[in-house]
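Reading a protein record of the kind used here takes little practice once its layout is understood. Each number in the token line that follows is a code from a learned vocabulary of backbone shapes. One such record is shown here in full, so that the layout can be seen directly:
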Amino acid sequence: MVTNVPDAKVPQSVQKPVVVGFISPQDSLLAVSIQLTDVVIGTASSVSNVTNAVVTISENNRFVALRYLDNSQGIYIAQARNFPIEAGKTYTLRVTMPSGQTLAASASVPAAVPIQQVVFDSAQTTTTQTASLSIKWTDPAGQPNYYRIKGDQVYSLTQPTGTYTATIDLAFRNENFRYLLTDANRDGQTLTSSSGYYQPYTVNGTGGAVSRLPGNILTLRLLTVDKMYYDYHSALQQFSDANGNPFAEPVLLPTNIAGGGIGCFAAYNQSLARIVLK
């Protein structure tokens, strides 16, 4: 049986500003993306870039204006050296849309937590093409803390045409979002990341590991993030995992954009460990 639905009862698209930005003391560039999306039931039907908004980030009586980056996807930027981001301070993002609509959000920058130890997989052998590692750190006690684990690997590739440098992201195993962690029920304890995978050896044409990569540099990053950052990226991961699954629970992306917009303005800090494999 087919039932005709009157046009008046068909869900109408609602155009909303989407604002996304993350700030950190380590960033050399402040960047915020601003787009308009027509949202209906399901996924976004269309997205358009906003190129003439007025965008500022402020802290007490300091502020910096962000300019639109030409030919970008709605990205507004400012040099961080002109407006340093500092731990322990709260920053406010304000956006005035071309229509006059005003949006705002605030984020407080957490303190960095040092990496205490990098643990390499003791099962690594000379025939493995990938190996794993994890990092450990001590959680500051007496407050809720949120973390994200990231890393990359820089190595040289020697080919008949020359030697090239390549950079790849380390793949941290996603066990219950263990690249995103909290200290819930573990306040003040030593925390351990999930396993991250890297390439310790070059690979020949038959797929065999032949030699260690010269000048192989691993950079491991422990991000201390605010709750909004943690909630937003957790929801993004759930959305990605559920994409295309008709039986998955619907995922609602959190937002802290006041004034009728959606998106996320959040802060993080980071510590790093850099290791040269020999």
User: Anything to note?
Assistant: The chain has a mean pLDDT of 85. Residues 96 and 102 are 5 Å apart (CA to CA). Residues 227-242 form the longest helix (16 residues). DSSP finds one helix and 20 strands in the chain.
